[in-house]
Amino acid sequence: MKYTDYGLVNTRAMFHDAITRNFAVPAFNIYNMETLTSVLDAAHITNSPVILAVSESALKYMGGDMLMGMIWGAKISPNDNIALHLDHGGSFDACKRAIHLGFSSVMIDASRMPFDENIKLTKQVVEFAHDHNVTVEAELGTLAGIEDENTYGTTSTYTDPNDVEKFVNATGIDSLAIAIGTSHGAYKRKRDDQELRFDILEDVAKRLPEFPLVLHGASNIPQKLVTTINEFGGKILGARGIDEQQLRRATKMNVCKINLDSDLRLGFIAATRKSLADKPENFNPREFLSLARQTMTQTCVDEIKHIMGSDNKINQP
């Protein structure tokens, strides 16, 4: 089935709108029914476009048929402005499989390859994806940190602005992920006053005017969730996210997609730990999973309103 059969859209129009109106579309990572429904509930509450991001490892965990069954069951409408995106696809075959499953957007991440090899593989994916009206994201620069096996890295390299024009023109991509100091996982900054490299972002935006830019590893890491986790037996010490004011600033500079994964994980675990501690006699998963959904939904709503600025941005026909 095609992604349009599921009521999904690609990212082309939503990114154009985001750049024009200075907001970012949130890309929330999902990996089960609870994360999927939480993101969709938040999108409906806020009237915001959203991207459902699925990594290769999450796709393996859920299974392609199960994922698409849940997407079908969600009864998504094109008016909802929902895209289904392969996050950090590591090969042409991974992107091809996602497109055949019904994904409307794919990321080919060849950022650790030499520059010319990155171009070659990315162009191959773009040609196939565009034949199916699927949009493509690629990356220049690498992020440190870990969220799963798709995003593991011990070192980071900033995006070189001198490379971006050649890369975009040679590949035909629809959006470009850049590295300006964000990182995967819950430990994104060593100090509270640490800033992103806005000088790099400004240079890239000048070289690629009106072109969609993407930030990965940009979770805010809400401290209230970290505190709750640690209070009820967790051990997430010294976790720091990206300041929401810095992310809002980035949305004024062509960043029209911001990826968030860790924040939903923190919400899920915080609610679950507290629920089971408050009611140790409980053995009904529906109870703590319902609380986890509520917490994740509220986390998404807060970030849509206060970071993305994407609330009430869907233009209804």
Plain-language structure description:
The chain has 317 residues and is of the alpha/beta class. The chain has one domain (3-223, 242-261): Alpha-Beta Barrel (TIM Barrel). Helices cover 46% and strands 13% of the residues. It contains twelve helices and eight strands. It has helices at 12-21, 33-46, 56-62, 64-73, 92-101, 115-131, 161-171, 198-207, 223-231, 244-251, 262-278, 285-308, and strands spanning 25-29, 50-55, 82-89, 105-108, 135-140, 175-178, 213-215, 255-260. The protein is globular.
Approximately what portion of the residues adopt beta-strand conformation? 5-15%
Give the helix tally.
12
The total count of strands amounts to: 8
Do you know the CATH architecture? Answer: Alpha-Beta Barrel
**Class of secondary structure makeup:** alpha/beta
CATH topology: TIM Barrel
Q: What is the CATH superfamily label?
A: Aldolase class I
